[in-house]
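Lest this sound abstract, we think one record worth quoting, the chain in one-letter code, the fold tokenised, each line plainly labelled:

>
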Amino acid sequence: MSSLGEKLRQVRKERHLTQQMLAEGLVTPSMISQIESDHATPSIQLLEQLANKLNVDISYFADDLAQKSWQSDTYRTASQLMHSGQYDDAVPLLKQLICTPSLSLREEALFSDLADCYERLGKWREASEIREHSAETALAKSDIAAAVSAYYHLGHFHKKMNHTSLARMYWQRGAKVLQSHPNSTSPVAGKLLQELGDAYLRLGAADSAIATFSLGVDYSKRSNLFEGPMVLGLGKAYMVRGEFAEAAEKINAALALHHSVDHEDGMDECHWTLGIWHLRQKQYSRALEYLQTYTHSRTAMRARQKLAYAYYCQTQCYVGMEDWNAAQEQVKQVFAHVEPGSELEKRAAYLSALVYIRIQAPVKAFVAVESYTSSSLAASSWSKTRLYNLSELLSVQTQALLQMQQTASAVTLARSLAEILLTMEIFPEE
């Protein structure tokens, strides 16, 4: 069945009229073009004028106009319901629209809205199925932008559910689509590549991260988008790979890019990363400068756990400089901001105990880690990170016992430490 726009174009051509001739005295030729491609809906008054000029009865277009009007009104109502949080009421309206073919409403947009409703309602299976269907439909139509958007949202959805492997898989699919269509554009392509690159960084997969962020830089340049976050991602990836000269070049380039557009959050992230870079190089004074710049930023105030880690890194700097008093004061900031029971809290306890060992306060050192060691040994599940943190706790506790000349207890703990280290050798990589 022909749409209103198709009917208008057909009659106009039968009358041997151009779009400009039909538009004369009524609207612009551009408006006629939009109506014919079903990207605009004429008012009843305009449609009547066009029908008169084409010498046809308005009833020829009336049914199509009513259908378009119903679709527009229904979508407007569904959007208002979503905006007001009435997702249950919006769902049946969106389903009706999906079942009613329309050239003025994009099917992919309707699917996306429906998936959003299901997510808000906690109907995760339905939301995932809708996103999957949307991606498949978009690929079948060669709608690259819609396919990439669907994969981005699928990944983001599973990230919120802590399904990290699934999230990464969907972002990988989106990246593959972008690589297969290098001239395509998508509003969320940059976000997808950023998420995928960051996911690789968390895995320690430096080569994959470098490839992803490089693709992101190329895409940003080609699409005239800001490339600062992608360049910073490259710097982080080179640092993970141990190529510190390349890392410093990219991080400083990213800082310059963010500075050029006065992007405060981006500059703060660069300062943070440069602090970590200098810490890895054991350039403690420079590391402190950058980390302190970060901890005094508004960005840090909005990211409590990252702020706690920044304080932890500053404590490491003071330990490296053998400034035990400053280290003691700094580790207090870690405990003030860290999430209770987290692995970072255990690492902070280790540093605190290490400082006590260095200042010959073994009892305080032992007490500082005792509860963390006990809870770690009683854990029902393990990871290589947890085993490593436990080995640090046992190591410093053993040192404390030796300082207290409790040799027998120290030997017992040392045996536990040896068992942990042996387990780490055979434990699979995360």
